[in-house]
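Worked Example 4.2. Read the sequence first, then its structure tokens.
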Amino acid sequence: MKALLFIVSLALLIFSSPRSILAQAAAPPVAERAPIAGRILTLDECIAIALEAQPRIQATLSDYAAARYRVTQALAPLLPQLSGSASATRSHSITTVTSQTTGQTLDLASSRLLSDTFIAQVQLSQLLFDFGKNLAATEAARKLAEVAVENVELQRQLISLAVKEAYTNILFAGRLIRVQDQAVQRAELNLRSAKGFFEVGTRPKSDVARAEVDVANARVDLIRARNALRTARVALNTAMAIDVDTPTEIQDNLVFEAVSLDRGQLRTESLKQRPEYRQAKLLVGAAEATERQTFRNFFPDISGTGSYGATQPQLNESWTLGLTFSWSLFDGGNRLARYQEAKANLEGSKQRLKSQELDIIQNVEQAEIAVEETQERIQAGQALVASAQENFRLAQGRFDAGVGTILELTDAQLALTQAQNTETQALADYRIALARLDRAVGRR
């Protein structure tokens, strides 16, 4: 009775159209989106666009649909098999017959037309009992279909992470452009001051040369920052599956908001939400079902058959009923080897599940450490920028008063630029660390 209920529920599950299959695994429908160009996108909007348009997700949805159809294929032998056939032959033969009384040899011709040999029939067969072989095969196929579902979620999480990292890199590059632009302005101001002092004879020519070098270095760093911005925008557009030349504009969220982490809770959540871990558990279930199937292959099959038809020329009715008992007694050790293979695969799946758990815990720990580290780096960077600004202000005043050297001013300017870059890098690393922590826990 339980087996019958399983078959019925499974049949209702899998006999659906491809459109409904994809709809069940796809993301919730969204309204028609406004044009991307010409407006400022938030991080959530970028993620939503990517999840809707990324071809990698569409590919995994198709893989899921194919896996569902494989469940149908595994279930099919449990359901009635109906077939029809019709045949007709035309023949002509000559038979040599020797009379026993006269001893004469005669050639007798025999000819049959298509209408004389026409046969039509419908055949029905039903597997009655197979010791659960096909049920186990169907269960294994169903587990693999669920693995395909988890692969859809895995791709969504990976794409969300890619969007978050590219989004942050755009903001980081934009901040670097502003920092380097300020560095260029300071270097050009110092160059003008050095030239003015040189013209009145209070500074040597070397101060002017050193200031010109600082201007050139600042401009090179500015060019690099601008190229980094272009590269990050291409990465974000690619992650969102839009034209790489789209002038994407995004909202700045590169701010520091301290977070507190509960390590125990994050570990528990990661083992519940990471699709890789759920996939590993499903693969263990599929391996168990395959192991049951290969073991039950040692037992016989019982099937019922029946046919109904008619033959020409009088359309004589004919029907048959039969019961088939089949049992392969020896096949050269093939079934035994397949069973042993299934047992080995099951043990391997169990060990991979344990390995996956260790990897996930390690990922969560590493992500937590990265978040805590970047929080400390941000606080140190903020203090460093404040000190560097004050040092540069003092060095600028000494140089303008004629008591400081160009080397002292240049060092202070470089220290300020590096401090600002360090703070900006820490802010970007913090956002990326939070994104990777979400990925490690299994969040989008």
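Now turn to a second chain, presented in exactly the same format:
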Amino acid sequence: MYDKNGFHVQIIRNMNEKEHLHPSVELLYVLEGELKVSIHEKVYQMKRDDVLLVNSSVRHSIASADRNILCWVFYDYRVIVDILENSSGIFLCNSVTDQEKSYDELRTLFRELVYLEVLYSRKSESGKYSLLYSMLDQLVENFMAGESGRNVCNEEYQDDEKLQKIIRYVYRNFQEVVSLSVLAEQMFVSKSTLSRFFKKQTGIYFAEYVSQIRLHCAVNELLYSKRILQR
């Protein structure tokens, strides 16, 4: 569940997750040990201090190669939609393979976040949110495709870009009528072509995904409201 700002933070040991997807943008930071993250059939061996981002609704799996401690940050995709009006919505953030960018600022922010989570979990909410927004700012400024010269033209990126466009459409319209036909027209493809593409990328049908997003958002709203009432 996300908090009121659309964030969720976990510190977890020995992470293992079978292939799955979720609508959040997921940011991983290895505190200790190693783990393997598989995305698009590529395996990334993360070690201590590595940072890796999984874009919204991209299928991936996580396997612990050894004992490890991981800081796990989720950003509700509604936050991304709100701040990125005319962007691809794709982040390219993977310190395992990226030798061009500096990840030092993100690592520093993660360490400060972990410190607050472990020692002051209920005393420093403003500090926690400040760090999470600073992380998001770092991602937008330095790790977004199309920004700062980070342009990619391979087929894998083009598929990701198309997928993110579909997801943005769903998030902007899930409270109203979501039409695959309208979206296909906007993307200059047939409805059947777009439907096949979405099923291939996510493993589920478009209508099922829309239902999941509606349920996901409704549950988060309900749980957050319940937490407010219990205070």
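Notes for the reader: The first strand starts at residue 7 and ends at 13. The two ends are 17 Å apart (CA to CA).
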